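Give me structure tokens for this 454-residue protein.
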Amino acid sequence: MPRKFLITVIFAALAGFLAGRYSGGREDQSLTTNHDHGDDLPAISAVGLRYVCPMHAEIVSEQQGGCPICGMDLVINKKVQSSDDEDGGLPVVTIEPAVVHNLGIRTATVAKGELHRSIETIGKITRVDPTARRIITPPIRGELVYIADKHDGDLVEEGELLFKVSSRELIELEKEFQGAYRSGDRASATSMIPRLREMGLTPEQIARLQAGEEADFPVEVYAFEDGFIFARRGFVGESVHTGFTVFNVGGAYKVIEVTAEIFERQWGWVEEGQTSTMTVRGLPGTLFEGKVVRVEPPVGYTTRSLEVALKFKTDHPGISQSMFAHVSILGQPRKNVLTVPADTVIRTGEGERVVLVRGDGRYQPVRVVAGEEAGGIVEILSGLEEGDQVVASGQFLIDSESNLLTGFRRMYAPGVKDETQQRHQRLGEHADDKRLYRRINSYRQPESAADLNS
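Here you go.
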């Protein structure tokens, strides 16, 4: 007897045996597939709290047991409220309060506030000036009318008056300003204030001019910091110009210049005068404070970075040139920004999302558009509102569950029935004969009429 004919006979006999056994149906069949639910397939909540195979979602049962396909224990199918998806987001996941406590789920509130931007980078100490001094010169050309009685080696304190300079040009501008103010021409008077400030008058002196005092104010120059007098020039009545050195003042410290590079995306965060801090690995626990003194506008073509220069003052003996340092530049904060903790944002290849708390133990992943991030805080451009509650711990587990439910719904969608689903449904209808099914499937089925006759 030909082998192909023998295989065909065996297959036909086994198929007839199964057809006869199950032709009458099974009224008490506890294990069903979604094929038996008809219109209930698209809504997962329609199956209620039943048991489902974790690997084969079409296997649903009213009782505990094993999956007829893979043998895994069936688990309870959580009820999902499909009505909560009116916003087009991912499915809502319902979690019992006791499970929420056991999972350690924490939440955070979406709030508006300040986003303190900070730039962290590595810099190199390019210069150490052990005899740092500052030359103090008059801001205008004029005559010395006062000079402090300070000489080489004397100590000066920050804010101490060093000298005064009177200028004919300044006095004429003061009178013109005062006249315009008294005549009611406030626009002309206001336009002169920047020029008065540039020539050295203080806001207090300008206010006194507006109050009607005589327009004869000299320029007053004060010490900018504590230090020592290294040199003094000039005397009362001497004519001086803007480049004339009256005092040479320095402190008991050395000036450190650090050169650092920042990323191209951060170039708009930095400007001259910003506060910065520095730490050196060789000096643990020591924090140096300084300022940004120079920003090189062109971004490097190859490195795509921006070079900045910072200055620090210190008397620490351990600082030397060419040392590397960790630099932090404090940028200007952005105000009235919608923010969430950075831990709440789930970043995927399709974008960012967070898990939103819907109330009553319901959680739903929603898509958001994230902006800048600084100090563990992320800016939210869209997708959330102030006062919303988001999950800050355990959000990845909830998001994974919601994605799994999304896959289930695609499988239950009308018209989505591939060969794998149909084979699994047929297997579910004959769950008790799993072994027999596998044996039948192991035989090669005839491919044509010629195979049946061979």
